[in-house]
Amino acid sequence: MKIDHPAGTALVLAGLLGALVGCGGGEQPEPAAAPSTPAAAPAEPADATKPCTLLSGEAVGKVFGTKPATPNPQPTQRLPNGLDARSCQYRSTVGSIGVLNVTVTDGRFTAAQVTDAIRQKMPSARPVPGVGESAVFYLDEQNNGAMVAASKAWHGQTIMVSCFGSRRASQEQLATLVKQAIDAA
Predict the structure, then answer these.
(1) Of 176, 145, 124, the residue nearest 11 (C-alpha)
(2) DSSP assigned state of 17
(3) CA proximity to 146, closest of 76, 99, 114, 112
(4) What is the pLDDT of residue 154?
(5) CA dihedral in degrees (44, 45, 48, 52; nearest 10)?
(6) What does the buried/exposed string (b/e) look like for 42-64 if buried means 16 or more CB atoms within 10 Å of the residue's CB?
(7) Mean pLDDT per 10-residue run, the chain (185 residues)?
(8) Is the pTM above the cut of 0.85?
(9) What is the pLDDT of residue 105?
């Protein structure tokens, strides 16, 4: 299948979320005991429904060695499985250097199930440790690009963040961007 838009590969992967079978449940861990001293309030997470808030243009430019990139929100796309895929395209003086995609599920699927679905569809995808709860790197020969996709639990749901860039983008570059974005959510 030819994907005309650079975000297309990530949107296809996001569509895999609806194809997952079964539920991610299982036993819930016991809640931790309350700390004896009040902890500092955690920083307010960025709004994952607005991908351009998860990753600054400066961060993208720094990773790719260009001037700060300009984030451009893209229209929300309703996937065939009913999920909304949101994306932010980053442009620099050399043109489009990456697309960040965010898809949020209703929480039926664990991060591992999301990554397993990607690996089943893209057998050459390989694990990326240390990014989200579960992540993979994939070279897209058909669209001359590379992608890292990561997932994690997020406010009772599962969020998948992926970054698609040119084949010149290394796994480490894309993983750095996805890690920054998924950690910000």
Answers:
(1) 145
(2) G
(3) 99
(4) 87
(5) 90
(6) eeeebebeebbbbbbbebbbebb
(7) 39 46 31 36 63 88 85 87 83 76 82 90 93 94 89 88 86 92 90
(8) no
(9) 77
Give the distance from CA 149 to its chain's centroid: 5
Backbone phi, then psi, for 125, in 5-degree steps?
-65, 140
Residue 29 CA from chain centroid, whole number: 26
Count how many residues are written for the chain.
185
Distance (Å) of CA 73 to CA 42, 49, 76, 91, 112: 27, 11, 9, 11, 28
* ∠ Cα 17 20 23 (to 5°): 110
Whose structure tokens read 């894309």?
Answer: 174
Please name every residue paired with 147 in a beta bridge, in sequence order, or none if there are none: 138, 164
HSE-up of residue 98 (Cα within 13 Å, Cβ side): 37
Cβ–Cβ under 8 Å, residues 121 and 104: no
| pLDDT given at position 102 | 87
Q: Which two tokens stand for residue 67?
A: 């001037």
